[in-house]
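Memo to structure team: turn this sequence into structure tokens by end of day. - J.P.
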Amino acid sequence: MPIPSPSPAFSLGPLSSYGPCRRHPLWAQKDAGAIVGLVRDASGAVVTGAKVTVVDVDRGIQLTLSTNDAGQYVASPLRIGRYTITVEKEGFKKAVAGPVQVNIQDRVGVDLKLEPGMATEVVTVTGQRPQLETPKPPNLAKWWTAGASMPFP
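Reply from structure team:
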């Protein structure tokens, strides 16, 4: 005997009596991403309480947040698009990075360094954190030649 559906407005048809489908929610892929980063000063120390402004270049939407006690920030969720990141803190020059591209479920890392100086001075960061490179497997053809035999234990 099938178990009655908890919501008459939603039914999976013949699968509604299949237990595993009913016990686990169905999640869709999110169409958003995030920009995360670490803010340091010129000596390499983390900068806490810095104002971080993330601006969607195409739509003009702005998100303002602060770095935490570890100097980190997380701007999320962000719609797919191009963003600029601006970091400000009293006693430091303003740092600007971007535009950086955010795609579906991206977690783009943008670390910034604040230089001592007046807030009216701007340091523009043009590079991004390098992508992780995985080592390539060795070329076994160089080690193994035709007709060669290798003793196996």
